[in-house]
Amino acid sequence: xxxxxxxxxxxxxxxxxxxxxxxxxxxxxxxxxxxxxxxxxxxxxxxxxxxxxxxxxxxxxxxxxxxxxxxxxxxxxxxxxxxxxxxxxxxxxxxxxxxxxxxxxxxxxxxxxxxxxxxxxxxxxxxxxxxxxxxxxxxxxxxxxxxxxxxxxxxxxxxxxxxxxxxxxxxxxxxxxxxxxxxxxxxxxxxxxxxxxxxxxxxxxxxxxxxxxxxxxxxxxxxxxxxxxxxxxxxxxxxxxxxxxxxxxxxxxxxxxxxxxxxxxxxxxxxxxxxxxxxxxx
Amino acid sequence: xxxxxxxxxxxxxxxxxxxxxxxxxxxxxxxxxxxxxxxxxxxxxxxxxxxxxxxxxxxxxxxxxxxxxxxxxxxxxxxxxxxxxxxxxxxxxxxxxxxxxxxxxxxxxxxxxxxxxxxxxxxxxxxxxxxxxxxxxxxxxxxxxxxxxxxxxxxxxxxxxxxxxxxxxxxxxxxxxxxxxxxxxxxxxxxxxxxxxxxxxxxxxxxxxxxxxxxxxxxxxxxxxxxxxxxxxxxxxxxxxxxxxxxxxxxxxxxxxxxxxxxxxxxxxxxxxxxxxxxxxxxxxxxxxxxxxxxxxxxxxxxxxxxxxxxxxxxxxxxxxxx
Amino acid sequence: xxxxxxxxxxxxxxxxxxxxxxxxxxxxxxxxxxxxxxxxxxxxxxxxxxxxxxxxxxxxxxxxxxxxxxxxxxxxxxxxxxxxxxxxxxxxxxxxxxxxxxxxxxxxxxxxxxxxxxxxxxxxxxxxxxxxxxxxxxxxxxxxxxxxxxxxxxxxxxxxxxxxxxxxxxxxxxxxxxxxxxxxxxxxxxxxxxxxxxxxxxxxxxxxxxxxxxxxxxxxxxxxxxxxxxxxxxxxxxxxxxxxxxxxxxxxxxxxxxxxxxxxxxxxxxxxxxxxxxxxxxxxxxxxxxxxxxxxxxxxxxxxxxxxxxxxxxxxxxxxxxxxxxxxxxxxxxxxxxxxxxxxxxxxxxxxxxxxxxxxxxxxxxxxxxxxxxxxxxxxxxxxxxxxxxxxxxxxxxxxxxxxxxxxxxxxxxxxxxxxxxxxxxxxxxxxxxxxxxxxxxxxx
Lengths: 282, 323, 445
Fold this sequence. Notes:
By secondary structure, chain A is mainly α. Helix content of chain A is 70%, strand content 0%.
């Protein structure tokens, strides 16, 4: 018996495409302006912040940027180190913790999860002061470790992984693996992690973007010029209100955003392609 | 026969250990420190010593009767609402379109990628951009409206409470709808495709599939989206601060901006800021708990309850047998 | 997926090991006693440090510069934390802008400032020799003596369009214009009416007038620990309303697109003038005039004269950390920047625009001695010597009506004034809300 597959009506198709294209234009527009402004001079931008037409100041903006007593390439490498570190640690350990919360039945399981949720709800800027006073007193300023290690405890990521596992993990796989003689750790690494690919990719993107763009904490923790990250360098260009060199600021912002595009394109394949995830699919 | 489940339970502890250790080391001290500050008299720049107040709840009373703080809480709720409802609806709509088994939208990949883009931009940049977009008396939007003949004189967007709140809600919406959509799509990817195939064979339309199969299976992820959006929304900070410092006339002042101002804009009222943070925390906890309760897995809970009752009964039987 | 993660992990381990290797070397070099930690919010002072080291090759200190912009309000919290934390990374030399300098010289953070005389500087003699503008000394002094000094003098003048003056009054002579627009705001508004009759707005927005009003008031926002609204400042409500209702300005907000556009004269009505110190001319107006030589845009069509009320706006003060281990070295640098009135002192270079070779931006400096022997002629002003107007303007300037909380209070005040002028509130309501918001947010009643 063949059931006729209902096709989407043409009107609906048009609506879908129109909405999507409109949303894309809306989403791209600020980036477009940013790239355009990177080619304009500061004074041009001051009297007309938004323009659709590029101008000729790209090279002079670049010169100002390079002339600023710091090396953007170093900033790029620093940002890369911190963001990669944060991403790997956040994603891996959050998956580990989430798996612990879902796959095993232990007494403190529910309280622990409630605890993690509670941490999530604490307003962020408040603990920042205590955090860097603490790091100052430990002498850990100008060091990347306090910026990377805390990612091991990322409540939002744990929450997401837990929800995801609750919805998709079947305990049968784990039992199969146990019967086959696999240790718990190995089961996690070789069987569970691959199942979580879309979740891992998603959270990896978010973690990377969040870390890459973060300004305030690195700003107060890193005072050595050779350790600056890209957002700090962009901030340097802003100075006082009458000395802000807008053209170079936009150029630096554009450069800061490019690696994020690249990382996103790399990781988005795992979300977009419909990877078959049926847990017990042969 | 040994009780196998016990030996596996310890793995729960082991796997959670890294999180606990790192958290205790890096975050516990700052949080306790801040919580404690709410009960002290620490104010002013450069002070390192403080004392506990004779009346411990003095800061809390001050904060809770502070009109600006109350206004900021109202603003926070209002702007979050304006932002979240459209965002959630749009994200769900887009998810349904992009995971529609029957209609593979051409260029799907590109659409998804580009719709996530706004999440990549820093808050400072976008706030600044929108501020200039709605400039008065000269700005792109004003120019556009006048050119289209919609208005005769430029609108003073920055001075309008309605416009300012709407713009900030819009910016938040714009920045996060792609993110929400991706999270939901990732969730849909986790649903067993055989269920979809079964639905297709049964002749379900895409609308039916979406509401009867996709949404309920997304319950766990939906809970995540709701709760994180709630928490993020209640803590809304960057955009209101950078767009117009919470103005005009405190109309876009959110709770976090108020707290920040208390701590950093001149008087360094660390103790009041800490007390207010605790109040905000309490509000978030209450609201999030409500969301958790509404979206709880009623079936799983019932099974749990039955299991506990059964265990209790089994133990009773064992005791009597052992007598 | 796992491969991607592995690659990322390997990359970060590799990079961090490389960097750690580099890092420890740096640490070893920097724990020597010849390090100066310099904190600022622009690269102006760090560039001065470069020049100083160039001129004094035996000044072999390593200078570690930390720049945190003031634009998102990040500079002060970072600086405060660094000062309070102390230790080897604490700032030895830091700068403060006029908007918040009082906090660091006389207010909550003043305890960290070293007295200049403790840095080995002969303060009294040098102050006399250099004829430093009094207001910058007043702001930088507390009970222990002089602790901070600025290198710029930012007394404000009125910068007007020559062609528009000729159009309205037949002449562009500074003395004539000066007597037309002041002294006093009544004369200013009368001049505004005359200009309006010729289709010219007198200022771009009410913000331009505010700095003059604020600077010239008798008392500051806080008197005897309570919030006080000086009558001169309260009059701003009325001045601003008059300007708006009678269309004397283009209703712009300073530092926005339209405000800059008025410098080119392309707003709805041409704008007569701006209030500001020399840096407004050189760093803001010159670039936004739509040209780089006389004849292009409004370049060359400007002149300066005394404002209806004296004020100062902006400026950077240099402060040394009382607990610094390198006080003498820092003192030498501070002396060169703020008190050296010779032809090799910083102020001579700064005034003549020769810090990085000839043809740089000129500016008004704190030392009267230096200005007397410097050339302040600017093409932008049609050849007028800007020092003629700005030196007396420096005398007008005073710091006695400033408090360390001005930034916050001013922001609330101007917001309420805008609410009143746009018709959203009554005058009484605006004042009442102002008081309430200051009480709520700053705890000042």
